[in-house]
Every structure is written in structure tokens, then in C-alpha cells.
Specification:
It contains four helices and nine strands, in the order βαβββαβαββββα. It is of the alpha+beta class. It has two domains: 61 residues, 2,3-Dihydroxybiphenyl 1,2-Dioxygenase, domain 1 (Roll), CATH 3.10.180; 63 residues, 2,3-Dihydroxybiphenyl 1,2-Dioxygenase, domain 1, CATH 3.10.180.10. It comes from Rhodococcus tukisamuensis.
């Protein structure tokens, strides 16, 4: 059986966060979503649980990272083309996110990144399939 990945992230406003990621084309699993959580589906094996900060605190014994000062993680999602990388990142910035770092262009691989409404960094990357195989 393939392993599944569930990423849990604190957010300040579930409704605004859900609208933000819906605008980027992500879907949600309503079975695991409520007023404190949005279960965002990346693919069949990967889900991001966007948890209202108070709900996120139920799962931790320490504090939530201050994303204005530090990075706890970098999340990277793939795109089907260079154009899709630009489209996703430009849409995120237009929806209230912010640009993060400079674009990375290595010819066979291209990526950009944005910070979401809560300051979490999302990288979007395309890699030439010929370079992988």
C-alpha cells in the first residue's frame, strides 16, 4: 500500500483560507471539513488539513511558528507546465498572498513560490519529464 501524507497547518481564518485555495483550483473533502477545519485535497494520497489556530493547538504541546519571522516548512506542489507555475503563483498573489523569493529557472526545472494568507510558503515547480526519466 502506498503511504498517504496528511499535512496539518494552522490558519487564522478558515473561510478566507478556503476561498483563497479554492481560487487556486484546489478541492475539499467535505467529510473531514467543518467550521474549524478545511480538508484540502492535493491528490488521492495527499491532503492538507487547514486548521483554525485554536483547533491546531489541540494537536501540539508547544507554540505555533510565527511565519513573519521563521519558516517551519516549505511546501512544494508540482505543475504540468511553466505556464501553470506562473498562473498558480500569480493567482495566489492576486488573491492576497505574497511573492516569496525569486523564480528558480534551471532550464529543465522551473519554480516560483508564494506565501499564503497565513505566511506559509508554497513552492510551485515544473520539471521537464524527459529530465526525470
Amino acid at each position: 500500500m502506498s503511504r498517504m501524507l496528511f499535512v496539518n497547518m494552522p490558519v487564522k481564518n478558515i473561510d478566507a483560507t478556503r476561498k483563497f485555495f479554492d481560487g487556486l483550483g484546489f478541492g475539499f473533502n467535505e467529510t473531514f471539513s467543518d467550521e474549524n477545519c478545511a480538508s484540502m485535497v492535493i491528490n488521492d494520497l495527499t491532503t492538507v488539513m487547514l486548521l483554525q489556530e485554536a483547533r491546531f493547538r489541540d494537536f501540539i504541546a508547544d507554540d505555533i511558528c510565527d511565519t513573519s519571522k521563521a519558516r517551519e516548512t516549505l511546501l512544494c506542489i508540482s505543475a504540468d507546465s511553466r505556464e501553470e507555475v506562473d498562473s498558480i503563483v500569480d493567482t495566489a498573489i492576486g488573491a492576497g498572498g505574497s511573492a516569496w523569493m525569486e523564480a528558480q529557472d534551471q532550464g529543465f526545472m522551473y519554480g516560483r513560490a508564494f506565501r499564503d494568507l497565513d505566511g506559509h510558503v508554497w513552492e510551485v515547480m515544473w520539471m521537464d519529464p524527459a529530465a526525470v526519466g
